């Protein structure tokens, strides 16, 4: 209860028994980082397929890749060269960047509000939020774009407030490097122009803003050139995600997409749900009227509006908006701390309950390993960790089974899913090359850009791994000479004593002759 009393004390200009300086916030995030590293090492879960894919990219350095810019591959390549390629070494990147987000939040709040206590508790408050834990534990592009979006917001705000060249340069650097992480930073450019047009039109007549854009373009240029040289595949991918070119299906489906979108965002931000019920009583809106808070709110509304339009024509994944939430979390936590709402017993209970619920969710793999009965609190079907278990077991099984069927282990591994192919590369001993079988029933991915060297592998046997039976997949089945089928088996994955996945494994005497350039849609 001391913690709630300390937080609820709204005299943030004074220290009340604790020092809220850099030493304490560093200590907090070092402790959190150590716990996350232990979780990565002992938690019992493997890489997410997207994590495995980004790691695989690092083995083939390039200016960009099919679906994302190259920064995540560069970082993976750097850490792998130091620590080797392990689950924990990949996730170490997310842990470090996530901690840097927390420390950057402390720095930004201290600079804007001139209060180390406020900065400490807002930064620490991020640890209560599911979205922050997700990006800080799994190394996807979400953690990188969230970090650079936060920096861009801060430096752009400082630039429009003081109009100093250094802030325009820093703003341009944040946008430019952020664009090397994910295309989402492109959203900031139209927003910034519209914001200046209505709020600070005078800055559009000066050079600072345009210098920041030029810097961003310089960083983005290699990615743009790469896309031009590869038939703009990145543009096609982003267009597909945005729903461009899709036909309107039905009003009922659009309503379903919109409901899923807003329900998903509410679920992601569940710890803030209590604000709806106490907004008027504690006049929370009065703490969000300053210029910085209004800037963050307008920026967030801009992003949500864009994704609402997308959700009208296609399904929007729950994590797509995480990158824009950190600045919003900052101002909401500031309003919560300043308003005195934490003195309310109902709010205390809700925060405690949501924190315990978050902890139970995060520790599900640990419970499954050490106390299986306790892990069943969250059913396997809805536990997001279910898709992250036993990839290593699958790779070991494939290698053990097939080695006994092939002379001198002279075979290659292919799949119809890039996710499976990426995971099998990472977890198979020796981390061999794998390939993604091209066919018209899927969209393009990075494996298609790399291609399949038929002349090098035509004499090798092929291990095909699917997540559905071959006989039910008429297209792929038609591409394979049935006389080439040597052997087939299955591998089942259990989680919390429930069957969650079955993989179908086929040994073929040869690789089907396919032309990926003619069969695969860029969409």
Automatic annotation (TrEMBL):
One of its GO terms (biological process) is lipopolysaccharide biosynthetic process. One of its GO terms (molecular function) is pentosyltransferase activity. Pfam families: PMT_2. Its main location: membrane. One of its GO terms (cellular component) is plasma membrane. Keywords: Cell membrane, Glycosyltransferase, Membrane, Transferase, Transmembrane, Transmembrane helix. InterPro entries: LipidA_mod_glycosyltrf_83, RgtA/B/C-like. It is found in: Cell membrane. Residues 67-226 form the Glycosyltransferase RgtA/B/C/D-like domain. It is a multi-pass membrane protein. The chain crosses the membrane at residues 25-45, 65-83, 90-109, 115-132, 139-157, 169-197, 209-228, 255-279, 295-313, 319-337, 349-367. This is Dolichyl-phosphate-mannose-protein mannosyltransferase.
